[in-house]
Amino acid sequence: MSDETLVLSTIEGPVAILTLNRPQALNALSPALIDALIRHLEHCDNDDTIRVIIITGAGRAFAAGADIKAMADATPIDMLTTDMIARWARIAAVRKPVIAAVNGFALGGGCELAMMCDIILASETAQFGQPEINIGIIPGAGGTQRLTRAIGPYRAMEMVLTGATISAQEAYAYGLVNRVCPPDSLLDEARRLAQTIAAKPPLAVRLAKEAVRAAAETTVREGLAIELRNFYLLFASADQKEGMRAFIEKRTANFSGR
Ligand code: CAA
C-alpha cells in the first residue's frame, strides 16, 4: 500500500477526520504510517480552516501497536538512527485539539497514540492495553507515563506488567476514555464533539489545550504560570473582546479567530 493511502483524510468544514488505513495489519504503526500521520497532522495544524482533528482506524482496530515486524530484528543503533519512536512526539505536539475515536484494538503504541490525543471516545468494542511485556519490551511511546497519569499507578502497573487488555467499559471506569458509544455512532459522536469545539474561539482553544496539557507534563507551579500567562494573553485577542461584549449585549458571539 502506498504512503498516500496509509492515512485517509476527510475534511468536513472545520473538522479533519484522519483514518489509519492498514486494516490487514490491524493498523500496526509502521514508520511509514507514522510518517504519513505526522504529515497529515502537521498539515491540519497549519491550516487555519481546520479547527479540530479526529483520528480513527479502518477495520477492527484503532491501532494494534508499533509494527512488530518492522522492529523484530532491529538493534538499538537502528532504533536510534531511524528515530523510530522519538518522532512520535510530533503527534503529541499538535496545537489543535485531537479527538481519538477508538473503534477497536488500541494496544501498545495504539493505546499510546490514543493517549497523545486530547479526548478519547471509545466504541463498545474497543480494547485498550500495553501488551509490550509479552514480546520482551516495555511501552516506548509514553505508555508508562501517560497511562499512569490517566488511570493511577496501581492500575497502570498491573496493565504494564501483565500486558492484559481492558474493555472500553473498564477504560471508562478507570477514567481513560471520555465515553463509550455503540460502534455505529462512534464517529458521529466524535463529529458532534469536534463541531462543538470548532465553534469556540480558536485562540482560546489552543491556549486552553496548552494549559491543560501542562497539568500532566509539568509541575503544578509551572502549570499555574502557563495558565496565568495564557489567560492574560487572551485579553489581546479580538475574540475575547467579542465574546465578552456579546455576553453583555445578550447576543451570540461572532468569533473571527483573531
Ligand atoms: N505489528 C505488526 N503486525 C501486526 C501487529 C503489530 N503490532 N498487530 C497485528 N498485526 C498483524 C498480524 O501479524 C496479522 O498479520 P498476518 O495476517 O500477516 O499474519 C494481522 O495483523 C492480523 O492480526 P492477528 O491475526 O494477530 O489478529 P487476531 O485477531 O488474532 O489478534 C491482536 C489481534 C490481539 C491485536 C493481535 O494481533 C496482537 O496481539 N497484536 C500485537 C499487539 C502488540 O503486541 N502490540 C504492541 C506492539 S509493540 C509497541 O507498540 C511498542 C511501543 O510502545 C511503541
From TrEMBL:
Keyword NAD annotated: no
Keyword match Plastid: no
Root EC class: lyase
Coiled coil: none
An example molecular function term from Gene Ontology annotations: isomerase activity
One GO term (biological process): fatty acid beta-oxidation
Record keywords, A-Z: Fatty acid metabolism, Lipid metabolism, Lyase
SUPFAM superfamilies in alphabetical order: ClpP/crotonase
A Pfam family per the record: ECH_1
Name listed for the protein in its UniProt record: Probable enoyl-CoA hydratase echA8
Function comment: Could possibly oxidize fatty acids using specific components.
Catalysed transformations (reactions): a 4-saturated-(3S)-3-hydroxyacyl-CoA = a (3E)-enoyl-CoA + H2O; a (3S)-3-hydroxyacyl-CoA = a (2E)-enoyl-CoA + H2O
Domain of life, per lineage: Bacteria
Family classification: Belongs to the enoyl-CoA hydratase/isomerase family.
The protein's Enzyme Commission number: 4.2.1.17
